[in-house]
Amino acid sequence: MPVNIKPVVGAGLASCCTIFSILGIVILLTLGSFFGKHVEGLTGSTKDPENPDHVAKMCYVAAIIYGGFVVFCGLQMAVHRRYPRGVQL
C-alpha cells in the first residue's frame, strides 16, 4: 500500500536549509571542541564565559538540533524527487 506523502516546504528551501544546517553543525562542533579544550583565545579574558565546559555542551546540543533539520530537510528533498516537475501536489 503506497503512502501518499506531500512535501511541507519547497525544494529550494529544503536544499538551502540542508546546506546551512550542515555548515552550522561544522561550526558548532568546532566551537564546542575549542570550548571543551579551554582554548585561551575563547576563555582567556574576564568577559568570556565562566564555565566553558557548559558552553561546549550547549554547542553540541545545538549541533544535534541542526542535525534534526538536516534529516527533515533531506527527507523533504527526497519527497520532491518522487514527483515530476509541474505536478500539482
From TrEMBL:
One cellular component term from this protein's GO annotations in UniProt: membrane
Protein origin, superkingdom: Eukaryota
Keywords: Membrane, Transmembrane, Transmembrane helix
Membrane topology: Multi-pass membrane protein
InterPro entries: Ribonucl_Kappa, RNase_K
Protein name, UniProt field: DUF4190 domain-containing protein
Residues annotated as transmembrane: 12-35, 55-75
Localization, UniProt: Membrane
Pfam family, one: V-ATPase_su_f
Family annotation (PANTHER family): RIBONUCLEASE KAPPA
Organism field: Kwoniella europaea PYCC6329
Gene Ontology MF, one: RNA endonuclease activity
Keyword Transmembrane helix belongs to the record: yes
